[in-house]
Amino acid sequence: MDRLAAMRAFVEIVDRGSLTAAAEALDRSQPTMVRILAALESHLGARLLHRTTRRMSLTPEGRDYLERCRRILADVDEAERAVVQDEGEPRGEIRITAPVQFGQLHIAPALSGFLQRYQQVRVDLVLLDRNVDLVEEGFDLALRIGHLADSSMIAIRVGEVHRVVCASPELLLKTGVPDHPQSLCELPCIRLHNLPRASEWQFQELGREFSVRVNGRLDTNQIAAARTACAHSVGFGQFLSYQTQQLISEGRLAPVLETFQPGPFPVSLVYPGSRLVSNRSRVLQNWLKDSLRESRAIQ
Prior knowledge:
Layout lengths: L2 H14 L2 H8 L3 H15 L4 E3 L4 E3 L1 H26 L6 E7 L1 H18 L3 E7 L13 E5 L7 E9 L1 E5 L1 H7 L12 E5 L7 E6 L2 E6 L1 E6 L2 H9 L5 E4 H9 L4 E3 L8 E8 L6 H17 L4
Parallel strand pairs: 3-4, 3-5, 8-11
Antiparallel strand pairs: 1-2, 5-14, 6-14, 7-12, 7-13, 9-10
């Protein structure tokens, strides 16, 4: 079985909505298309389509396989065009993932400019506050904040961010500016309970890392909610620098305890080491590196 031909046939069947229409588009007979589909399902050991005399629909396995087929075929088409055209204008689909707020603030604006510049590229941006399995979930590129544990990934470091403790100017007038992290034990703090050790904030002094247990009247699982509450004087908050950059520049939050900041977190663009990097992905990587540095989202 020609697996690429079978993939093209499967995609055509789904896009055309019937075996007959796909057969006409590919200049094949309808029985040939039936045999190709049956052979593909037998090879995979899974049914891809539910078929009745009236309608056809994808199975869950078929839906996942369809997306992977589209990406594989797009990569094959681009590889062929690259040989002929010496990697000219990038084209095809790129799937990228990033943390929710960082993606909203910095990746989405950068992608807007990228898509205006490269008209033949389509981007699927998925914002998630978890580290996805790029290979298993079919992503070409990810922006990661923090130290990387997966050695099978290739990381391009584009900068770093650091933790910052903030409070509103109004709250600081009321409590005074703390001069040491231990002072936070007696001050209202906002905790993010979806983080490990949410009640223990990390600091550094004279090269030694230590933690301070904090408490307060508001716990939340959302960074945006914690940041808003912090700006409204509910308590002190500890965030990553990009999360409070705008509020600090507007004067709605003020950083404190800056000399006790722990070490920074690297910001990296990551892709699977086992996968060839397409021209479109390479162009996007360079675009994002330049855009992020120009926006001062990272240091």
